[in-house]
Design goal:
Elements lengths: L4 H8 L3 H16 L5 E2 L11 H11 L16 H15 L8 E4 L1 H13 L5 E6 L4 H7 L4 E6 L8 H7 L4 E6 L12 H18 L4 E5 L22 E6 L12 E5 L6 H14 L7 H8 L9 H17 L11 E2 L9 H10 L2 E2 L1 E2 L9 E4 L4 H21 L1
Parallel strand pairs: 1-10, 3-4, 3-5, 5-6, 6-7
Antiparallel strand pairs: 2-8, 7-8, 9-12, 11-12
Length: 397
């Protein structure tokens, strides 16, 4: 064997999202891209806001030098200070730049956090349905993932989380607005979770950290509020990126913010800064740090996503699919109709020229994920395909 056993095993059970992405390439080559609706990947179809281009031009024309050199491993002090001010304005929590570490996207941030937190065998609770890469990020650093189902509305079940906590529990990960369900957790959800974690932390004599993965924070609809978790729980590690709200996932820029009130906050930031270096990230991309420093209150125009969400929800409702209405992100996570196996259902969708992802890939069999970060043409094809697939399932039942 030429590669590690661990990597070979991980590759064998690799992400369904990537499997469908590969299948999509094949199908598009066979039928023509214009004839296939690819709703498998959360790859923003929107271009970044005009302010992004304007800011890039401003930076490119600046007479200042040395902008492409190394900086402190935690990132530029000016960028961290700007984000700290943004966070304090929105949360009331007294962040400073010393509580921030700039990272290579949210994925890089999560790896840095787990590297800094976990000893071998430590457990991290993740709520299903969950972003499947969490498993790899946690095991990368010797941890074990513990999956806890959400309730029927895909919201955290505080008592189920309480039952899953052991002396090895080091952290709980929450992701809201959620991928894949689009559900936004409420203030009450976080109050209940905070009560459980506060009690469990006291019993264990060390904090159980609440890690928030929030790249979709700015993508919410119909005036829905996305609560700030650090207002509810002291030992919060806030991780996010600018991949979705500025539609620039390929630029890989994000950050970690440690709640200043958290136990050992300075030690945590030091550990994350060290992990940023030794994992080989060294620092977040220099130009992107400068870029986002002036764009913290900018986001993409959500009207296009809102329209696509409405069209898909109408099609799902008309065809009889059972769906929890998404309030954020750009995903819908319906039940597979007729009790059909979700992988079998996804293959049926392929026959109708539509790519979706089975719920099994998110730890929740019996569902499937649709992404509406796609073109209007994709939506046109999907609306018809969803009806045809439902009819075929009903006929086979």
């Amino acid at each position: 064997m030429t590669i590690s056993k661990a990597v070979q095993q991980a590759m064998t059970g690799a992400s369904w999202i990537r499997k469908m992405f590969t299948e999509g390439i094949r199908l598009k080559q066979e039928l023509g891209a214009e004839n296939v609706a690819d709703l498998s990947l959360g790859n923003p179809v929107l271009e970044p806001p005009a302010e992004v281009e304007a800011r890039l031009r401003e930076l490119a024309q600046s007479p200042a030098g040395g902008w492409h050199r190394y900086m402190p491993n935690a990132g530029y002090p000016s960028t961290r200070a700007a984000i700290a001010g943004y966070l304090e304005k929105h949360t009331g929590v007294p962040y400073t730049g010393d509580h921030l570490v700039m990272t290579v996207g949210a994925g890089g941030g999560l790896n840095v956090a787990f590297k800094g937190l976990l000893d071998h065998g430590d457990e991290v609770i993740c709520l299903t349905p969950y972003f499947v890469e969490y498993r790899f990020y946690i095991t990368n650093h010797g941890g074990s993932i513990v999956l806890v189902p959400t309730d029927a509305g895909f919201r955290p079940d505080a008592e189920a989380i309480r039952a899953a906590i052991t002396p090895k529990t080091r952290a709980v990960v929450v992701n809201s607005p959620n991928n894949p369900s689009g559900v936004v957790y409420s203030e009450a959800d976080y109050d209940a979770l905070a009560a459980v974690l506060t009690e469990a932390s006291a019993e264990q004599g060390r904090p159980i950290y609440l890690i928030t993965d929030e790249p979709y924070r700015a993508i919410a609809y119909d005036g829905v509020d996305v609560p700030w978790v650090q207002k509810h729980y002291r030992d919060t590690i806030h991780i996010t990126s600018f991949s979705k709200d500025l539609a620039m996932p390929g630029e890989r820029i994000g950050y970690i913010a440690v709640n200043p009130a958290s136990e050992g906050a300075a030690e945590l930031v030091g550990a994350f800064t060290f992990a940023n270096r030794v994992l080989g990230f060294v620092n977040a991309p220099a130009l992107q740090q400068r870029l986002i420093e002036g764009l913290l209150d900018v986001t993409v125009d959500l009207s296009g996503y809102a329209d696509k969400r409405s069209r898909l929800m109408a099609a799902l409702d008309e065809a009889g699919y059972e769906t929890v209405r998404p309030d954020g992100a750009f995903y819908i996570f319906p039940k597979v109709p007729g009790g059909m196996d979700d992988v079998e259902f996804v293959n049926l969708c392929l026959e109708e020229r539509m790519l979706v992802v089975p719920g099994s890939g998110f730890g929740t069999p019996g569902h499937f994920r649709l992404s509406y970060a796609v073109t209007d043409r994709d939506i046109d094809i999907a609306v018809d395909a969803l009806k045809r697939v439902a009819e075929r399932v009903a006929a086979a039942s």
